[in-house]
Structure formats: C-alpha cells, structure tokens
Design goal:
This protein has 361 residues and is an alpha+beta fold. Helices cover 46% and strands 14% of the residues. The protein has 12 helices and 10 strands. The strands form 3 sheets. A 4-stranded antiparallel beta sheet has the order 1-6-3-2. A hairpin with a 2-residue loop joins β2 and β3. α3 runs antiparallel to α4, α5 runs antiparallel to α6 and α8 packs antiparallel against α9. The longest helix is centred in the C-terminal third of the chain and has 24 residues. The termini are far apart.
C-alpha cells in the first residue's frame, strides 16, 4: 500500500479516486484502488461491500509526505463464497478518519470485467464464459460466482438453469464452494423436472439434460450414495438413440456407460454390466459420423471420446473373457479413475474408491 500507480493527482483533478482491480483467484479477491481528497488528508481505509458482506482494508498510518497525494493500495482478501450473495452489487469506497466516504468508480477496464463476469444477463454470455471448452474460465471460484448468478437470473429458462446447476454441482464436489445442502437442493429441483425434460430432449437440450445427470451422478458418488449414482449414470445411457441429434454428447455417453457398467460389475451384477456395454463397439462410429469437424476443439473432443469408448470396449471384452492377445494386450485393465478428470480427482482425494477390472491370465 502507498502512492497510487499514477502518483500525485493534478491539483485541479475532479476525479478523486478509482477502483482499478478486482480479480478472483483460488485464495480470494485481489483488490486495488486509489483515492485523494481536495484538502490533502489521506484516507485511513478502503471498504469493499456487497448486499450481505462487507470487508474493510485498513491503511497503515501515513506520514506528512502523504498529504495531498493520491493514496493507493493492492491487497488479497480471503472471502468465503456465499451462493446467496449478489456479487454483482460489489462497490468500493475510500474512508477518512472524520467519517467521510467516497464511492470509487471502476475504471473502464474493470467495469467491462465486472459486467462480463458478475453482471452478465443472458444464457449465451454464461455459456461463452463458463462452458465453452475453447474459451471458458477455469478458475473454480470464478466459476462458482458465475453459477450463482446464473441460478439467480435464469428464471424460467430451463437450459440456463440446468447449465448453472451443472457448474454448481461440480464446484460443490470438487472444492465445496457450494455446500452439500445447497447442491442437494439443486438436485431435488432437477429430479422434479427431469421426467418431463428428458422425454423430449434432443439437440442442445440433450446436452443440458444428460450433463445434469452426469454431474448429479458424480455428486452421489462423492457422497457415497452408489445406488443414486448408478441411477443417474444409467439414465444417461437411455439417451443413446438420440446421439445423432447432438454428436458432442458422445463423450458424456461413454463416460456414463463406463461408470454405470463398473458400478454394476462391482455390485456383482455382471449381466447388467454386459448389457450396458452391448453397443460399445458401434457407439463411437455412430457418434462420429454426423459430427462436423470444424475447429481444434472438435478434434480434441474426438480424441477424448475415442479414449473413453476404447476403455468401454476393453471392459466389454474383459467381461466377455475374450482377452486373447489379438483382441487385448496382455495385462489389459480399466479403472474408474481413467474416465474423466473429475473422477480422477475424486479418487485421488479419497472420496471415491477406484474400481479396477483386469483381463484374466
């Protein structure tokens, strides 16, 4: 903390302060701004506030040399995430010892960032920021803030609400940004809607319905509810006949098929595991055929889908005991932790027991 990056403010300056930075990282908010008053008295603190939360940054005592200068600061604030807070209401003020307060306007660059990340108003903006694989924001805390706003403003837009629910559920199980009771509430709302939504889900709607099943399945696994997890993953496999209406569904379908089969196998239900894997050999070419390869991300999607369905094929052959050398290499095996980055993290954290099935011999 000390002089602002701009140094001494001009004597005739009409702007007496600015809010220059609000960046979110894994540790919290990085906040920066500056202020001065015409009588030259330096501020004693800066205060960042929302509707429900408020934090004050006390400045160190300023010497005589600070008189008349623009006093700036930059600091890291550890702020617990609250899904019920309207984070778009953030405001920064400078505070003086005599109780005077000066609201600090965001710089144009910060205003743009605040609008983009905290004040977006439509589904398309949310998708681009938080669910477009090529450009999305990957910081977990920023994703949590985006999900909270999406759930707050989605209203009757079903796809918007499901998209927000998906991000919130992943943040609940991976970092705990959303508490379990909040995640359970979102899943309950989803369960009330899913029968009607799933019946007609095609195209883009298929993405949101099946991705919600997948996220709810991961959550159930993390919470040790294997029965509910199986139901969610198995539900995804029920949409296989609509693959051509949304080919990008290929990876999610493979992940759900594999996890559901592994859970059935682990429970001793080998016939059910085999049933789930019946179409493993045909599913990848079915999904690839209508997929238009037009950008780098689509090639990445194909690569990942190939990995997923290859593991499904290997498990199918292991369960059929067709592990001859010309079909599967010696020592072939599949594991739950191989299926996705989320599953790997859940296994590494000890929230889910890895399930490994190896070829005989």
């Amino acid at each position: 903390m000390g002089d602002s990056p701009g140094g001494l403010a001009p004597p005739n300056a009409t702007r007496q302060g600015a809010w220059e930075k609000l960046e979110i990282g894994r540790e919290g908010f990085t906040l920066a701004g500056w202020a001065r008053r015409e009588d030259g008295t330096p501020p004693v603190a800066f205060e960042l506030g929302w509707d429900r939360h408020r934090v004050q940054i006390q400045l160190p005592p300023q010497g005589p040399e600070a008189h008349g200068r623009a006093i700036g600061f930059e600091t890291l604030i550890g702020m617990p995430f609250d899904p019920h807070e309207d984070w778009s209401s953030a405001a920064l003020s400078a505070v003086w010892a005599d109780g005077d307060r000066l609201p600090l306007p965001p710089t144009p660059a910060l205003e743009e960032a605040l609008f983009r990340f905290f004040r977006f108003e439509d589904f398309q903006s949310f998708q681009l920021l938080f669910q477009n694989p090529a450009f999305r924001v990957n910081d977990p805390l920023l994703q949590a803030h985006g999900a909270a706003r999406a759930l707050r403003i989605a209203g009757d837009d079903v796809d918007f609400r499901l998209a927000g629910t998906i991000v919130a559920l992943y943040r609940a199980i991976e970092e705990g940004s959303f508490r379990r009771e909040e995640a359970e509430r979102l899943i309950s709302l989803w369960q009330e809607q899913q029968a009607g939504l799933g019946a007609e889900a095609k195209g883009a709607r298929l993405r949101w319905v099946t991705s919600t099943h997948l996220a709810a399945g991961y959550a159930a696994l993390a919470w040790g509810d294997l029965s509910r997890a199986r139901a969610e993953f198995t539900a995804v496999t029920g949409f296989a006949d609509r693959l051509e209406t949304w080919p990008q569904f290929l990876s999610n379908l493979g992940i759900a098929t594999m996890i559901a089969a592994l859970l059935a196998h682990d429970a001793g239900e080998h016939a059910e595991a085999a049933r789930l894997l019946e179409d493993a050999e045909r599913m990848y070419p079915r999904g690839v055929a209508p997929l238009q390869i037009w950008n780098f991300h689509m090639f990445e999607e194909l690569r990942f889908a190939l990995h997923v369905w290859q593991r499904c094929f290997v498990l199918k052959k292991i369960l059929e005991r067709e592990a001859a050398a010309h079909i599967l290499p010696p020592g072939s095996k599949v594991a739950l932790s191989e299926m996705s980055a989320t599953m790997r993290r859940l296994v590494e954290r000890g929230l889910v027991r890895d399930m490994v099935v190896a070829a005989p011999g």
